[in-house]
Amino acid sequence: MRPFFISSDAEIKSGETTDVYFLRTRQILESYGLSRKRVLMECTTGELPDRWAWGIFCGLEEALRLLEGYPVNVHAFPEGSFFRPTDLRGYRLPVLTIEGPYGDFCLLETPLLGLLCQASGIATMAARIRKVSGNKLLMGFGIRRMHPALAPMIDRATYIGGFDGVSSLIGAKCIGVKPMGTMPHALIIVFGDQVKAWKAFHATMPPDVPRIALVDTFYDEKTEALMAAEALGESLDGVRLDTPGSRRGDFGTIVKEVRWELDIRGFKNVKIIASGGLNERNIPALIEAGADGFGVGTSVSNAPTIDFALDIVEVEGRPLAKRGKLGGRKDVFRCPQCLLDIVQPSSNPPPKCPRCGGNMESMLKPLLVNGKIKAPLPSIEDIRKYVLRQLERLEL
């Protein structure tokens, strides 16, 4: 019996995490000699959660690792690309296509969609929070709300979406950064005294760890913030407010009070970090109140998934699709200036942008050729920078 209810790499790669009807489909096709029929499938979504105007495409590296070694060709948007559900004429955008003998890869449809749907949802929410937060510090605190097996994926997608760092050891290791965090209430409660706990933290932690004191354990936030400032003096980098919802009241007003009291005592350099129940809706008011950074958890790690679907659109080179979907091989062209998208048959010549008349670029890049990754994949830092560049031009 396995100690944790998680799938191994080998089980995922071999298709054991698929839905049973794909196994039955393969068995039937093999019985009738049809499993080698070559199909083209495309990954699309008809709409985004909560009427989002755009999403961030994430999970592609895992998807390619899943399909690597199978006799398939894959074209896809670069990881980190923003996408809309449809182009300017209402045609669905394929963000990824797979071509190959259907019987060879049909068991991978379920895990493939799982890899893309959840990571893209998390990256999109992270990007939305980055958009409303401007250049404020953002730390990913969400892994405690999810299964621990997902920690690396959650933190990777959070970081790609634009957060500055993540709290988990394994997530930070996965993305090649140092973990970020402050201190828990447990540390202070075990000491039984805020000042002793803060001083112990300062005495024990290496110099590169920011001195951010948690200031809402026993007394109100304003009182404890001043106690921390007096206890650590110029060594104090910041205070964190993590007041439970049952005691919070108007969080913005609390932030304003703390900021005021620190400032008039000469602690203008002490940052205010807020955490607990934060999301894209309540962060702007806290920025206005004076918050300098945020630890964001559940709203990102439990972000709505992107409802991608994978559909056959061509069989043995012949356009063929179920009702509601458009058959045939397609390409997606984007104007780099206007960010408009056009979906059209891949046999058509590249279009001109209908708005500015400029050249449009194909978004579906060849990434996997007969099961082999065509070129080195971009680093997570390059993907994150790509997302941030796009966010400068996107509106919520």
CATH superfamily of the largest domain: nicotinate phosphoribosyltransferase
- Give the count of structural domains: 2
Largest sheet data: 7 strands, antiparallel
β-strand percent reads: 15-25%
Given helix and strand content, the structural type is alpha/beta
> Unreliable stretches, pLDDT < 50, 5 or more residues?
none
Cross-sheet strand order for the largest sheet: 13-12-1-5-3-17-18
- What is the rounded Rg? 25 Å
Reading off the top of the CATH hierarchy, the class of the largest domain is best stated as: Alpha Beta
Give the overall form: elongated
In percent, how helical is the residue content? 25-40%
Please give the number of β-strands.
18
| CA-CA gap between termini | 47 Å
What average pLDDT do the residues reach? 97
For this entry, give a set of tags:
alpha/beta, TIM Barrel, 2 domains, 7-stranded antiparallel sheet, 6-stranded parallel sheet, 18 strands, elongated
Characterization of this structure:
This protein is of the alpha/beta class and 396 residues long. The protein has two domains: 9-116 and 306-391, nicotinate phosphoribosyltransferase (Alpha-Beta Barrel); 121-301, Aldolase class I (TIM Barrel, Alpha-Beta Barrel), CATH 3.20.20.70. The protein has 15 helices and 18 strands. The protein has helices at residues 9-13, 20-31, 60-67, 102-105, 109-133, 151-160, 169-175, 185-191, 194-204, 221-232, 245-248, 251-264, 283-289, 298-301, 380-391; strands spanning 38-44, 55-56, 73-76, 82-83, 96-101, 137-140, 165-166, 212-214, 238-241, 271-275, 293-296, 309-315, 318-319, 330-334, 341-345, 361-362, 365-369, 372-373. A seven-stranded antiparallel beta sheet has the order 13-12-1-5-3-17-18. Strand 14 and strand 15 form a beta hairpin. The longest helix has 25 residues, at 109-133. The protein starts with 8 loop residues before the first helix and ends in a 5-residue tail after the last helix. The mean pLDDT is 97.
